Membrane protein (Knoellia aerolata DSM 18566), 123 residues
Amino acid sequence: MTAAVLLTVLLVLLALFQLALALGAPLGRFAWGGQHRVLPTGLRVGSALGIATYVLIAVLALDRTGAVDVLPDRFSRVGMWVVLAYFVLGIGLNAASRSESERRVMVPVTVVLAALSLLVVLG
């Protein structure tokens, strides 16, 4: 359960970051390829949708470890495998970013997210 809680804490921090991006904070160099200091409308919407994704992932992780019981067991078990694949793919996508800032910050963050997800999957 510790991995799920740590994963959730990191996802809350990322959700706050995405909220800041969606509201127009000049942090675009860390996200979405780093091409915009302030994100254009379409990417702001994407950041807002990212928050919903993080909430779903947190619920899946917490459900999978028994901290909450809101989803069918099979759904959370399979869902966490999908989450793990999502974060592993994210490592590669962040590493391929043109933005050095994004690579330096988001690759390690995504590695930690993938590692915590693996612990939840195996737990």
